[in-house]
Specification:
Layout lengths: L1 H12 L2 H23 L3 H20 L4 H23 L4 H26 L5 H38 L9 H25 L1 H12 L2
Helix pairs in contact: 1-7, 2-5, 2-6, 3-8, 4-5, 4-6, 4-7, 5-6, 6-7, 6-8
Pfam family, one: SpoIIM
Organism: Clostridium puniceum
InterPro entries: SpoIIM, SpoIIM-like
């Protein structure tokens, strides 16, 4: 694990500007998510509250279909990883990658804030066990992947329009190894989200909501 973390840390040594930009967009997304919940209309809040209680009642009483859940979690993460990497191979991918960073932050901020504020603090436990465990791994990997793709896309842009960039074999330059590390860590997060988080959610749901 220390080796993997060391290799990911190397990604940022020469890419601090990209890291800073990605982090700003991600944090802005979280802020937008928090404020969206704060200014949500009463009818929308009631609809989501009813859905939330239906969800907790279902997950608290029904057995978890781990096979189906694993498929859904893999699909969800694939829809994040693949587009960001493909955009990194294009000269126009930079703004779209940043928008995806914004949306990822928005989703996390919205989900966490809704669970906490809607139930006047009672949702904190559920928010923690449903959002935090897997995202401890997902978020650093997501940021690392965004930094790598942003760097590649920027080099493509420079080469196409300013002739200052120098096309490199990114895979030979070590990007492939970094991607393997990121995917490995993502896989650990997927296993946590599939096999650990549901048990934690079920426990909290039964303890406080049923």
């Amino acid at each position: 694990m220390n080796y993997l973390l060391t290799k990911l840390n190397d990604t940022f040594k020469d890419k601090k500007a990209y890291f800073f930009i990605v982090l700003i967009m991600f944090c802005l997304g979280i802020s937008f998510g928090l404020y969206t919940v704060k200014y949500m209309s009463t009818s929308d809040r009631n609809d989501l509250t009813n859905y939330f209680f239906s969800f907790t009642n279902y997950i608290g009483n029904e057995p978890v279909n781990y096979g189906k859940l694993l498929f859904e979690v893999i699909k969800k993460n694939t829809l994040i990883i693949v587009p960001i990497f493909i955009l990194g191979l294009t000269f126009f991918g930079t703004p779209i990658i940043l928008v995806l960073d914004l949306l990822k932050g928005f989703t996390l901020g919205y989900t966490f804030s809704f669970m906490v504020t809607t139930f006047e603090g009672r949702g904190l436990g559920l928010a923690l066990v449903s959002v935090i465990p897997q995202n401890i791994i997902y978020i650093p990997c997501f940021i690392a992947l965004s930094v790598i793709s942003l760097s590649m896309s920027t080099e493509k842009f420079k080469e196409k329009y300013f002739k200052h960039g120098k096309i490199k074999d990114f895979f030979l330059a070590g990007v492939l190894n970094k991607l393997i590390i990121i995917i490995t860590l993502f896989s650990i997060g997927i296993l946590i989200e599939t096999y650990i988080s549901p048990s934690l959610i079920k426990f909290v749901a039964k303890k406080f909501y049923l």
